[in-house]
Design brief:
- The protein is mostly beta strands.
- It contains no helices and five strands.
Length: about 110
């Protein structure tokens, strides 16, 4: 998977000391957030970067968890490809405590 656009908000909207609340993305080497992490990213850290599963990952899946602060200005796009044998890549998501039921859009394809 390559991130064509990766521009997450780095505006900290948390007034509490020592607690940062910016947009960030966690990437896991497997089919859930229980898999080993491939890192946590914010700002433009993944712009143009290729992310792939490791040889230890027998599922070949990558799980992404995106968390946004209340500013809501971050954005990203990615293209996914895989090698044979491969199931068609799928995208899905859900909003946890979103401002509105339609505050996030996932564009398949």
């Amino acid at each position: 998977m390559v991130f064509n656009i990766f521009q997450l908000s780095t505006t900290d909207d948390n007034p509490a000391a020592n607690i940062t609340n910016v947009d960030y993305m966690d990437i896991y080497d497997g089919n859930s957030t229980a898999a080993p992490t491939l890192g946590t990213y914010t700002g433009n850290q993944l712009q143009g970067i290729v992310i792939m599963s490791t040889p230890l990952n027998t599922s070949g899946c990558i799980t992404i968890r995106f968390r946004s602060n209340t500013v809501g200005t971050g954005m990203f796009t990615a293209s996914a490809t895989c090698e044979t044998p491969c199931a068609t890549p799928t995208a899905g998501g859900f909003i946890v405590a979103g401002e509105t039921p339609d505050s996030t859009r996932i564009c398949v394809g």
